[in-house]
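Hello again, I could really use a second opinion on something today. I've been staring at a protein lately and its backbone has me curious. Can you walk me through what the tokens say about the fold? Take your time with it, there's no hurry, and the full record follows here:
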Amino acid sequence: MILDYVRGLRLLSVRNINPVVRPVIGNALQSQLVGRVFPDLGQIFEFSSSYDSYYSSFTISVKQRISDQFNLQAHYTLSKTIDNFLDIGTDIQETNDSLNIANERALSLQDVRSRFVLSGTFESNLLKNKYLRDFQFSTIVNLETGRPYNLLAGIDLNLNADNPPGDRPLGLGRNAGISPGFANIDIRLSRKIKIGEKAEISGIFEVFNLFNRVNISDIARVFPPDKNGKFQLPKKSGNRFIASKDRFLGAFSPRQIQLGFRVSF
């Protein structure tokens, strides 16, 4: 059993320190000319190490050698990750108010609440049948709960001239959505055959994503208001917005099969 707590300090990120703070209603161009913090300048992006993060976790691990042929390892982690920034180079404009970083404190995009990993190997070296000996079978099972995603309005609600706008519908907090979970099983079967006294040939058969599960990697996150100014947000589970199927944009790799040989001498 392992308990972890990690505090990240002085993390580097970027923000616009010259947004529009005095908008001219109905005249976006005039707002950008006279309404900024420093009216004589345009957008100013500041790189600063003033951001932070929190990570806490509880992990249970089991390692067991059941016999001379079979090994088993299992890990379960319950964790929570909080931060107030986005990594440099990824969606740096998704800040509702770049002058109020404290309001960006929320679950991190890397937050995975529960993760279970099971791995095992079986070796047939002790079998009497010569055709079944020298095989090694291994597998790894990976199960994860969904990760947060950020809901965007797609328009500049607070008129601060951010482009693209990082405003969130209805004053939502950052990363208020939850994506589908992740599940994957990989397997590997190999065998070594000796040729003479020094040479050896190895055959390897691998299958990734054994059951060809569709694991979602990308979601459409923009929810603009309709003509009446209402936001059609997805359904909620608790206080998290669930990503619906019509919002899925991409998936991780489908089933892949790999066959290989290696000769050693």
The two ends are 44 Å apart (CA to CA).
